[in-house]
């Protein structure tokens, strides 16, 4: 496949030397999807970094959902701010372990704890199960703040791709259900709009990662026949929300060369218009999930540094060197 001429040259060269694997979901049966999950589960992901302690919890009040709690090793002064994190995977794939390396950087560099949610996946568990799992995990973190050593006044939600969409939806639920209070939302290339009618959603049928067909598959798995229709609630697809006021400050980023580009840009502008303090970053020449698959290259390193900086600022920890 020839690459888009706008693709960042350093990333293009890296992928020419070592092509990225492609995941094709379009047309998969439930049995084939289960086999793909099993193959992914056998993948060895980078482990948590030295200096980060990880414990898995299956709280009775969250059953059958698992949460993966990350915090710095050793004593820390006072309770830590905490990010409740949702992994990506198009609503149909993924586990918290795939983000252990990313989360380790947040813990060590942004000075926070992280609760990563192993929410249940579609299509076996369609809407509202995934977002309710995430919201229940947020409630658990707030209720167990003392036991976990975290500050319930410095809670944030965040996620990437499908997880970014779930984080945005969880923020809407927290607002509308009267808590827990959120200090911030970190929305990385979030999956926000089931309608798939923007220019970018139509343009990227063969991008580096996550083509339009995969996106249609993920939304259909989550919403069934409701996908794209008039009855989809904002807690399923946050771009559907008519009122974005009263939400926590946000950071939204997205790549120039991906399906989600336009829906993310619009959501960020709508947050600003609703009075929500928002930072938006459009990464030039970048594709979906670029910072996770090519983390050592220049543009991904810039993106990762921005995430750390905004988390430190939002959660009350000054940026290093400032």
Question: Can you characterise this structure?
Answer:
- The chain has 322 residues and is α/β, with parallel strands linked by helices.
- The chain has a single domain (9-20, 46-314), classed as Rossmann fold (3-Layer(aba) Sandwich), CATH 3.40.50.
- Helices cover 36% and strands 17% of the residues.
- The protein contains 11 helices and 8 strands.
- The chain has helices at 9-17, 30-41, 100-110, 129-143, 145-148, 162-176, 199-203, 212-223, 261-273, 290-293, 298-314; strands at residues 52-57, 66-72, 80-86, 113-118, 150-160, 184-188, 250-255, 278-283.
- The chain has an 8-stranded mixed beta sheet with strand order 1-2-4-3-5-6-7-8, with helices on both faces.
- Helix 4 (129-143) packs across helix 6 (162-176).
- The model has no long low-confidence stretch (mean pLDDT 95).
List strands and helices in order, with pairings.
Blueprint: H1 9-17, H2 30-41, E1 52-57, E2 66-72, E3 80-86, H3 100-110, E4 113-118, H4 129-143, H5 145-148, E5 150-160, H6 162-176, E6 184-188, H7 199-203, H8 212-223, E7 250-255, H9 261-273, E8 278-283, H10 290-293, H11 298-314
Parallel strand pairs: 3-4, 3-5, 5-6, 6-7, 7-8
Antiparallel strand pairs: 1-2, 2-4
Helix pairs in contact: 3-11, 4-6
List keywords for this structure.
8 strands; globular; alpha/beta; 322 residues; 8-stranded mixed β-sheet; Rossmann fold; single chain
Evaluate the radius of gyration: 18 Å
- How would you state the average pLDDT, rounded? 95
Q: Report the CATH topology name.
A: Rossmann fold
List low-pLDDT spans. none
CATH class: Alpha Beta
At CATH's second level, what is the architecture? Answer: 3-Layer(aba) Sandwich
Task: Report the sheet-strand fraction.
Answer: 15-25%
Domain tally? 1
List the total number of helices.
11
User: Which homologous superfamily in CATH is the superfamily?
Assistant: Alpha/Beta hydrolase fold, catalytic domain
- List the strand order in the largest sheet: 1-2-4-3-5-6-7-8
Number of strands: 8
Shape: globular
What is the H/E order? Answer: HHEEEHEHHEHEHHEHEHH
What structural class do the secondary elements suggest? alpha/beta
Main sheet record = 8 strands, mixed
